[in-house]
Amino acid sequence: MAVKRQILSYLQSCRRLMQIFQGLFLFFVGLVLLVPHDALLPVCGALSVILFLLLVRIISRPSCASTIYHCVTFLLLPFNLVTCWCLYTKIALQTTSKPCPPNMDWFKVLDG
Q1: Domain coordinates of the chain in residue numbers?
Q2: 3-state secondary structure string, the chain?
Q3: Residue 100: exposed, middle, or buried by beta-carbon count in 10 A (0-12, 13-18, 19+)?
Q4: How does 22-50 read in b/e, with b if 16+ C-beta sit within 10 Å?
Q5: Residue 72, CA atoms < 13 Å, CB-side half-sphere
Q6: Each residue of 59-100: pLDDT tens digit?
Q7: 65-90 b/e with 16+ CB inside 10 Å = b?
Q8: Which long-range contacts (CB under 8 A, 24 or more apart) does 103-112 make?
């Protein structure tokens, strides 16, 4: 009976961690849609560091690591791809005199 209680306790803590990740991911999606391009880059970097630290904390807890490993990877992948995309378009805008093609600079579309 004690083992069953311990397993349920571990699953509860994993659920709480997953809710934190889902909240951060939705917060980031909102930022991508609402924040102007220049202001988004430092926010991308800060959120990247926060998510990395949370990932390290989860991996240090072996009881939760196996349960939510795939979910964390799924949440971090789009976040890191968008962060790299932000940096790429920012560098491309600064280093070329020609504007980016319309399909590359999608922040202008969002800003109107």
Answers
A1: 2-111
A2: CHHHHHHHHHHHHHHHHHHHHHHHHHHHHHHHHHCCHHHHHHHHHHHHHHHHHHHHHHHCCHHHHHHHHHHHHHHHHHHHHHHHHHHHHHHHHHHCCCCCCCCCCHHHHHHC
A3: middle
A4: eebbeebeeebeebebeebeebbeebbee
A5: 22
A6: 666 555 555 555 665 566 666 666 666 665 665 555 554 554
A7: eebbeeebeebbeebeebbeebeebb
A8: 107/36, 107/37, 107/40, 108/37, 110/32, 110/33, 111/36, 111/37
Reported as a single tens digit per residue, the pLDDT across 38-64 is 666 666 666 666 666 666 666 666 555
* Amino acid (one-letter) located at 92: A
Q: Which tokens in the block code for residue 98?
A: 């020609």
Name the packing angle between helices 37-59 and 2-34 (round to 10°): 170
Token reading at 20: 């934190």
